[in-house]
């Protein structure tokens, strides 16, 4: 990611007017796909084996992608897409749709309300625009590089809190079957934040925490490891809402980084200090 994603925004890419139109159409596409996921929402689905659970998760993904893929293909015929929500690292050059058709899929299967549909356009490894739709509330969060972040057309701005001791912070499980060292680091970071922050929230998915950072409801979010589809939408939203994006040690963040931190500018430095202990 460029320097600007760590501060108060991202430099606008060429053709920003057409990108604004593209964002509006992307938002329409994720809303339509979200209606598919909403129709599949209901009672808790119990599974006897891990294999059954994985098939159910895949079925949700496939149902949404069947609605989302053709719409995005019409918008950007030459763009390729990444649909593995656990994948990380840099992408080849060109345009890519980074999709999470059911962000918070496990929540969806357990009749919990925290889930969304996301689509982010990445151009030469720079996030250009993102749309995140919450089917249960009907809200759509959008961000366009250099043009701000919004929810249903209303501007978003991160918290103005300047004291970590007064902050509500959050973290998320990076991914299933995580390396033991990463799991222990997550535990240590939560303990450190329990001492330094006002309230610590721990839940999935990451994107919904990051929406709250962009909206000023949560002051900071951090995660170790992670994936493009988890973090790119929220990173763009937070940066465009005036937040700071870095790794947990305050260095520039990219999808290949081993940690991630999104915070209001007033508490970013304190959060780095806490997470670096």
TrEMBL record:
- Identify a single GO molecular function assigned to this protein: metal ion binding
Reply yes or no: does the keyword Magnesium apply. Answer: yes
Q: Which cofactors does it use?
A: Mg(2+)
Signal peptide bounds: none
List the keywords (alphabetical): Magnesium, Metal-binding
Pfam families referenced in this protein's UniProt entry, alphabetically:
Inositol_P
What Gene3D superfamilies does its record include? 3.40.190.80, Fructose-1,6-Bisphosphatase, subunit A, domain 1
Return one Gene Ontology term, BP aspect.
inositol metabolic process
Binding-site residues, Mg(2+): 100, 230
Read off the PANTHER family from this record. INOSITOL MONOPHOSPHATASE, INOSITOL-1-MONOPHOSPHATASE-RELATED
What's the protein called, per UniProt?
A: 3'(2'),5'-bisphosphate nucleotidase CysQ
Q: Which organism is it from?
A: Streptomyces triticiradicis
Which classification does the entry list for the species? Answer: Bacteria, Bacillati, Actinomycetota, Actinomycetes, Kitasatosporales
